[in-house]
Amino acid sequence: MTFTYELLWIILSFLLTVMVLSYLLGDNIFFRVAAHLFIGLTAGYVVLLIANQILWPYLINPLINGTWPEALWLAIPVVLILMLLLSQIRRFTWIGSLPLAYLAGLAAAIAVGGAVFGTLLPQSRAIVDSFDPARWYAVPNQTWLRILDAVVMLVGTVGTLSFFHFGRKQKTTSEEEYEKQPSIIEGLSKVGQVFIGITLGAVFSGVFSSSLLALIDRILFIGQFLTNLFRSF
Amino acid sequence: MTEKITCPECGAENLEDAEFCIVCHAQLREDSTLAFVDPQQSDQDGFDLLNGEEDDLPGLLHALKQEDEAETAEDKSQENELPSITPEDEFGKEDIQEDEGIPGWLDRVRQRATEEEDSTGEITQKISAAKESLKGDKRSTQHENFETWIQKLRGPIGGGFDRDPEAGDSSDELEEEQEEVQEKESEWLQKIRKAEGKQNVTEDQRILDHGENGLLNWLVALEDGEEDRSGEQGEFDIKTEEDQESDEVKIDESAATQEIPVDERPLSVRIPPKLSVTDEDRSQADQLSSMILDENAPRPVRVIKRRSKLGAARFFFAVLLILSMSLSLFIGEAVVNQSGPIQPHTDGFLSWIKDLEEGAGILLIFDYQPAYSSEINLIASPILIDLVSRESDLNLLSSSMSGPILQRQLIGDIPGLDTDSITDLGYFPIGAYGAFGLGMGISADWQIVGLPESARAFPDGGFDSILILSDTYGGARAWIEQLTVLMPDTPINLVVTAQAMPMLVPYFDSGQIIGMVSGLNDGVILETELSTGVMIGMRRRAYQGGLVILAAVMVIGAINAGNQNGEEGGAA
User: Fold this and answer.
1) Per-residue pLDDT tens for B387-432?
2) I need a labelling partner for B27 at 20 to 30 A (CA). Which of B5, B135, B536, B568 fits?
3) Predicted model pTM
4) What is the β-pairing status of strands B13-15 and B4-6?
5) Chain A interface includes B480 (CB < 8 A)
6) Which residues in B lie closer than 8 A to residue A64 (C-beta atoms)?
């Protein structure tokens, strides 16, 4: 058995996997060492990744090799970066408001725009389209199934939206009346709770499935390592 | 066994020969004088002092006092006639007056008493002492009341400062004495006075503190304290707890004297007014009392029960899970891939990849973490092998930090892959920003030297299709929302984990994506349909065994939790 560079990494991977799995016996020094090692490696890796993949190709290299007009354009992000750095000093905290406002505004615009035009409107249109008779009769012998699918989709969507309905009466006579929603919305929100519960259950089963697959992969790795190790001797 | 005598006054037992009670010092026997007086000689001679009603000492003293008053009255009557009469003369006169009716035995006793110094008996001595005490009581009545007596006591003490002006010559000497007193004054007492805020202590108080007679100091302090307290009570101030505590502290610090609380309020004030309690007040009081009782009630200590048992059970099930999956993976023959029912989104994905033209430009977006790389790789490997076989132009873009590493790992496992046909577009830190920037084609007009290929990838590249590999719903949604709006004509497909799939199905139903595969089942379907040679069957068998064990563990845990809640509810 030759001791190669790849074998070293395999041994290290095996040891770290066993150290993490040792948490089955409770919190111990091996698990903590492995966790701290991963955290430290991740931090160092992120710094190098940002410098190598973001700062150098998008900022420093164009500044060095670009023309003056190009450099002026790139001066804008440089100034924003410097303002963020200066904001870490207590006397100049206010300076960081401008770049943070720019980032927050941009994120809000992108998120809201994406949610409205990428999710809400297409999903709503899909519900409307599901009641198109042409779709119902597109596949033979599945007409009632398509209709049922469309109704369930509509009820689930409206019920879920009703559950997250935050509207209240503007003029109320008592606190109980203020807390109570309109009866229609109350009823639909109850239906929405059922759909939300089913969805969260499906998500939970997916998490379970993904975790199980990750465990299978690690067991397979350990088994293959030990098999190869015994075969080599 | 000796007999004991019971005291007629207090009932205590005393020795037989004891004359006085050891407890109350009352006389235990009949008067010794009575024994001394022979009953035979008494002979019912009419001696009033020893009649049946006055056979006790108080009665005897009362009789003597009456006799003394009678004698005093007689003396006053005789003073008018005889201005100067000596006691001896009075005694002789008394003898003369009484000689006529006095029995002979009494005369002999008196005669003997005059001749012998120690002839007076105990009773006689007590009588004499009682007479002296009565005289002393008369002197004490000169103090009409306690206040006047205190004033007299204070007079000579404080009089040093209110002295007669004629004594002004000696003021210098007195001041020197005061300075000496101040020097002798202990430091701790000065500290206490400073702490109490009594820095301006009057000279009277200093002298009182250093007086030789501690009792006088106490009495004067008591008098002052009563005056002060009476003034305070007149105001009816409501003291807070802090004030009460400070008062207590002051009392504790006054080591020399202690204030004795005396309630000098009139009786009408001391008696509280009659309370009128309504039903509402009563209910509130009941609630308050019940609340206080609940707060003071001993609460059961929440002990972590069966921690060791739970830990052991957890370890047991984990070992069982690992062993069962290990056996499924390493023991037995290879399992042939068996595909199950195909979902619409999986069918859409298969249709897309089958209809894909050779040499098509594909954008691969890596948006997953290393923990889910095994699942993603398991599904994506058959797809990539098929794409490579179609000589597709692959463009790799990462929106997760570990994306650059994971894409190398995935691409490196693909056999027969020509690295020249792969374009690395780099890393975009935030998926939504990157998707928006790429979709908007902002960099199309930019001609900055040195910008990476990804900055102008969309406008220049014109991808035929986009394949997003993601492990979370949020990451995939960010890309879908931006790209479906900005690049509506480019078909989007998803390779996601099982945990992200349920929330992404609506995007397939709405037509925003044309296909999606996720989880082990879809991986098996892909392998079966594409026939790339990736063996998933063994993993699927281990996966199914693991699911059964985990389901059993969940059921057992739910039952155990229900039993625990029932026990805790019953205990509560």
Assistant:
1) 888 888 888 888 888 888 898 888 887 877 777 778 888 888 777 7
2) B135
3) 0.58
4) antiparallel
5) yes
6) 450
